[in-house]
Give the backbone structure.
Amino acid sequence: MELLSLYAGRPKTNEWQGREITTALVKEQLSGAAFLGRINLEGDGQADLVHHGGVDKAVCVYPAEHYTYWQQELGCRLPEAAFGENFSVGGMEESAVHIGDVFQVGKAVVQISQPREPCYKPAARLGIKELPQLIRKTGYSGYYLRVLEEGTVKPGDKLKLLKTGEKKITIAEANHIMYHDTKNAEKTAELLQEAALADAWRIPLEKRVAKLNEEKGFKE
């Protein structure tokens, strides 16, 4: 498990697909070490603070292995950090890591908090309207980290697993529960038992379980 590249960017207004979008999605590669703070990576920022950023989404991670698939599937060469990631990683696909996993990377300690939700901004940037649906279908979403201990990180740092998430639910499994197995109250409740799950996922899933239980009560 390795940190291959670092990316950071500030919010800018871009014209994509005939509309102006203010976003920090377009990021530049950092050549050396950078400080990883509680809220974000040095030099990085977010335009939409409702859906991005904050302690549960301090770092956006995307597995580098997926780029080969996307370039073949979409028939085009993708720019670096096409999905707005801060960390490009190797050996850390969604099926290989769990919500709640804690890693040492450089001088920092981080924890996986939730999958990254498919967003319209990469789709607008790349001119591929159906991209969010394709991400849900494949599960190639990437994920977010919270920073437990601040410190410097740099390309080439190994990610050393310090602790596995309590419920051992992979990012791939969480995506399946959220987007495909939507009527499975038992699995959803199991995911909610993971204390490290971010509120951005916890709140809608709690509502889902309540609704499913209510529907079950009506049927009975």
About this structure: The helical segments are 66-74, 120-126, 131-138, 171-179, 185-192, 199-219. The chain has a mean pLDDT of 91. The longest strand covers residues 108-115. The chain has one domain: 2-165.
